[in-house]
Design goal:
Distance between the termini: 39 Å
Radius of gyration: 17 Å
Number of strands: 7
Structural class: alpha/beta
Helix content: 40-55%
Strand order of the largest sheet: 1-3-2-4-5-6-7
Largest sheet: 7 strands, mixed
C-alpha cells in the first residue's frame, strides 16, 4: 500500500491571497528559490516545498512517479488549508507542476514553468537518467551527480558569479542518494504533458535562461505556443538555474503571473 508523505514546506514570504508555491529543480531543494522569493514584491505569500525524497521530505514508499509527487504536493497543501495556488516549478519542479495541474486543475489557478519542458525524455536521455539512478544506488553516494553544477549554471555564472558553483554543489551534497535515484527514475517515466497546457485556461508564465542548454529556448517556445494564455520571459546571462543566477528577472515574471491570476479572480 502506498503512503503519500506529508512534504516539508517553508514560508518564504508572508502575504495574503492565493499563494505562490515554488517547486525546486533536481537534485536540489527549496533553498534554490531563496533569492527569487526575496526579490518578489511585498504582499505575495510564497511557499517553498521540498519534493519527495529531496531536502527534508521523506519518500514514504512512493512509486517512482511524478504523478505521486504531485499528489503529495496537493495533499500537503490542502492539509495546510490551501484551497488553490499559483504553482511554479523549475526543471523537475515544472514536470511536477504540470502533473499537479493535470490531476487537480481546479486547485491550480496559474502555472509558472521555469527552465523546464512539457515533453517527455527521448530514449537517450531516459537511459542516461536510469544509469545515473543505478550508479547512485550501487555506490550509495552522490558522486554520479556531483558534476551537475557545471551543467546547470550558464557560462556567465561560471565565469562571473563564482560563488554560485560551491553553493549549488552544497545543495546537491545535502541530498539523500535514494531520493536522487527516485527522482531520476520518476523523471524518466514521465509522459508528454503538452496537452495539459493546451487545456489549461488560466495564466501561464514560461521563463528560460538564454544560456540554458538543458531545456533551451525551443522547449520554452513549444510550451508558449501550446498554452492558451502564456507570457514568455527570456533571462539574459542565465543558464538552467535562472532563478538562482538572475533572481530579479525571474521574480518579476512570477510577480506578473501572480498579478494576472489575481486580476482574473
Amino acid at each position: 500500500m502506498t503512503t503519500t508523505p506529508t512534504l516539508a514546506t517553508y514560508a518564504l514570504r508572508d502575504g495574503a491571497g492565493v499563494p505562490l508555491v515554488l517547486l525546486h529543480g533536481f537534485p536540489l531543494d527549496h533553498r534554490m528559490w531563496a533569492a527569487t522569493a526575496a526579490a518578489l514584491p511585498q504582499g505575495i505569500r510564497v511557499i517553498g516545498v521540498d519534493l519527495p525524497g529531496q531536502g527534508h521530505s521523506d519518500l514514504g514508499g512512493l512509486p517512482e512517479s511524478l504523478d505521486d509527487a504531485a499528489e503529495a504536493v496537493h495533499r500537503t497543501l490542502r492539509d495546510q488549508g490551501e484551497g488553490n495556488a499559483v504553482v511554479v516549478g523549475l526543471s523537475m519542479g515544472g514536470y511536477v507542476a504540470l502533473a499537479l495541474t493535470e490531476r487537480h486543475p481546479g486547485f491550480v489557478h496559474g502555472i509558472g514553468l521555469v527552465d523546464t519542458k512539457s515533453t517527455a525524455d527521448g530514449e537517450e536521455a531516459r537511459a542516461n537518467r536510469l544509469r545515473a539512478a543505478d550508479a547512485v544506488v550501487s555506490t550509495q553516494t552522490l558522486d554520479p551527480v556531483l558534476s551537475m553544477p557545471a551543467k546547470l549554471l550558464g557560462p556567465t555564472s561560471i565565469l562571473e558569479r563564482r560563488h554560485l558553483f560551491p553553493a549549488v554543489e552544497t545543495w546537491i551534497r545535502a541530498q539523500a542518494p535514494m531520493g536522487v535515484a527516485w527522482a531520476q527514475r520518476a523523471m524518466a517515466a514521465r509522459p508528454d504533458r503538452t496537452q495539459v497546457l493546451a487545456e489549461f485556461d488560466g495564466p501561464v508564465s514560461v521563463v528560460v535562461g538564454a544560456e540554458d542548454k538543458i531545456t533551451p529556448l525551443a522547449e520554452a517556445e513549444h510550451m508558449v505556443h501550446a498554452a492558451r494564455d502564456a507570457v514568455l520571459t527570456v533571462v539574459p546571462n542565465a543558464g538552467h538555474l535562472s532563478a538562482v543566477e538572475e533572481p530579479g528577472p525571474v521574480a518579476a515574471a512570477l510577480a506578473l503571473l501572480h498579478r494576472r491570476v489575481t486580476q482574473r479572480a
